[in-house]
Amino acid sequence: MSWESSAGRIETAALLFTDSKGASTIIPVDDGQGSEKLQAQEGRREELILHSDHVASLAELRQEVAESESVVGVWRDRAELVEAEVAPLRAQSDFLLQAAGSARGAFSPSAHRLKPSPHPAHPIPDNLPGIPMFRPTLPALLLLLAALPVAAASPSTDAANEQARRLVRQTMQDERIPGLQVAVVKDGHVVLSEAFGLANVENGIAATRSTRFPLNSATKAFTGVAAAQLAQQGRLDLDAPLARYLDALPPAWQSVRVRQLLAHTSGLPDILDERGLLGGGTESQAWQAVTKRPMDAAPGQRFAYNQTNYLLLARIIARQSGMPYERFLASSQFGTVGMDRTTFGDSYDLVPDAATMYSLAPRATEAADTPTRLSHWFYDVPPSLWAGGGILTTADDTARWLAALADGRLLGEPARTRMWTAEPLADGRAGPWAAGWPVLQAVPDRQVAGIGGARSAFIVYPDRGVAVVVLTNLVGANPQRFIPRIADLYGRGETVP
Length: 497
Fold this sequence. Notes:
This protein is an alpha+beta fold and 497 residues long. 31% of the residues lie in helices and 18% in strands.
């Protein structure tokens, strides 16, 4: 069925009815019969899946839908999905245009750009299990949406979602964030997943739910899950010394426990410095350099964040799983959950649909009082460090992963609880990290997180049954700072008296 409007010709594909028990029935629309079948579905909610050859604006689409006697109760989220696929981009707000500045500003590199990578490019193969690359069409997006464990909308959830949208838009304007994805998991169901703004400012490319954003150091949470899975299977003892699993380590390193790598309490020297890899050379040269350095502290004495820990974890996971680190994650996590948009890489890799990274930091060559403006940001994560910061993904995929983590598909409850428990220091005090996860709050209202690159984060509130994912393309956006405000919309936690 189709009708003409000022917005163009609109074609109806099908009517989807969902009753109070969550059962759904799809009724094809043919020669006007969908209207009669709609009237026969008393007490049911309905939804119209639309496809448009040309739609001038979402406002006109909504007006046409409202005027049609055969359609009622169209969900706002589905209308926004249609907008993202077919409507012209209207997200280029004044604040982004101002931030973009001149053409020179839009293309100038960040003050903190790393020197060109000493290693050759590492293109990500298309055939990694569980992480195929593709450009989704509208039907593919609808199938993907159907696969998400989306909870039935309730008045309270609808209100929280609308408040979350307003909060996100306001925060993007205040912080000058070009593009953003947000997803909320409540009681094991994804209740909100949307994209806002621009994935690439200078070319006006919209951020969509399929846009890939880097997790950076939030990748460590996935590494924590991988280690916990191997431990649950009896293939890895987290309390064992490194010497049990890795050969040719410096003598001082051999007594460090695997668990201390996960929690950054190993005392090992860092393979990175302020310029990047130690020595500014290859990965192999950096490894030779770091193994010659003395210990920074005795194992367990103090917390010290560093990347050597996760380089070693990648080697241990590869050895104990019998496959490269990235393939083990693809098979045991990405494939299990259905994370089809998740892969590995950095600024030097050609990753389809990856968001462009930006910064407001001035160049090192500019005067200190130079007004801030948006410019490119480049980051280098060589394959040996992927376990500490190499994942690119979407909020959809990450929310799907968090839901699977909550319902036991990835880990049993005892293993998950242990993974989220802060690692104690030698003096008995709790350290700030658990096994791959920063512990933001232990009691009451537990909060664990993945935080990466000052631009991506997810926070899990196990006692509330809530998790929030926010991925951005602005270094310095620090979404972990405003995620708690989003989480509070879906249920506040217990506070300390």
